[in-house]
Amino acid sequence: MSVTGNGTTSASDPRGLGPADAAAGVAKSMRIRGLFKEYRPGVPVLKGIDLDLEGQGVTAIIGPSGTGKSTLLRCMNRLVEPTRGEIIFEGQDIVSLNRAGLRRLRRKVGMVFQEYNLVERLSVIENLLCGRLGYVSPFKAWLRRFPAEDIDRAFELLDAVGLGEFAQQRADNLSGGQRQRVGIARALMQAPHILLADEPTSSLDPKTSVEIMELMAKLAGERDIPVVVNIHDVALGRRFAQRVVGMSEGTIVYDGPPGGLTDAHLKEIYGGEDWLN
Ligand SMILES: Nc1ncnc2c1ncn2[C@@H]1O[C@H](COP(=O)(O)OP(=O)(O)O)[C@@H](O)[C@H]1O
Ligand SMILES: [Mg+2]
């Protein structure tokens, strides 16, 4: 029995989806239609996004700073309220969810952050056991009592991200790359049906960035879930993604394999051309 109620089941478990949903082929899929977001009335940041995410593999969302990548990702777990449009996750429109629905949604949508969002004073293993979406239950952290199966799962995930030896270390003792590995393991604790990562490498040096993207790609390959990574580093995105979505000023201007991305596309996405040489 899971006391915490968060993901202790295997990745193949439909986790509460009705059989009808699974039969309809909507499990682990997200369908976005006509998505607009305005932080200020009349100033859209997202201007009619259509995007389908399903199946396995990494989708890299590229585009210049300020183009709406984070806003798009944050709409997908309702950290940001969409202004209009549809986001259908596993057959259900998440734009209209109530609080309980939102909690269920966020259990299924794993999130990895640029700044890791770890609880610095807690150990690595406690970060996995307590954290979700960067929020922690102080009561549980204080109690430090967790179901054995959650603890087993946390250790398995730490091994999977190469941090098996670091379980008892405090988060604030770790390097940036190690912290991000904890962030990834924490997101996987809940056995998410989709994994979103917002610039997971932009606080890291180039070598560590490659290692983190390698890890994301490997984990994506092992789990049958879509992995979406916002990344402004085009080369890194192209190298590790099966699909690239290029954004410019709140719209999608390219959606296809990395190999199909031409200089003309990059010019449209990033503007200018001097930087291409
Ligand atoms: N909470 C917010 N309130 C107001 N404006 C915001 C907020 N978050 C982002 N923006 C604006 O929305 C636009 C897109 O931002 P963002 O989604 O962060 O882009 P990206 O992730 O591609 O850099 C920017 O102009 C940014 O200033
Ligand atoms: Mg961003």
Topology:
Blueprint: H1 19-23, E1 30-40, E2 43-53, E3 57-62, H2 69-76, E4 84-89, E5 92-93, H3 99-108, E6 109-112, H4 124-130, H5 138-143, H6 148-160, H7 176-189, E7 194-198, H8 206-222, E8 226-230, H9 234-240, E9 243-248, E10 251-256, H10 263-270
Parallel strand pairs: 3-8, 3-9, 6-7, 7-8
Antiparallel strand pairs: 1-2, 1-4, 4-5, 9-10
Helix pairs in contact: 4-7, 6-7, 7-8
Bound molecules: adenosine-5'-diphosphate (ADP) and magnesium ion.
EC number: 3.6.3.27
Protein name: Phosphate-import ATP-binding protein PhnC
GO cellular component, one term: membrane
Report on this model:
The protein is an alpha/beta fold and 277 residues long. Helices cover 34% and strands 22% of the residues. It has a six-stranded mixed β-sheet, sandwiched between helices. A four-stranded antiparallel β-sheet has the order 2-1-4-5, covered by helices on one side. The longest helix is centred in the last third of the chain and has 17 residues, at 206-222. It is globular and about 50 Å long. It starts with 18 loop residues before the first helix and ends in a 7-residue tail after the last helix.
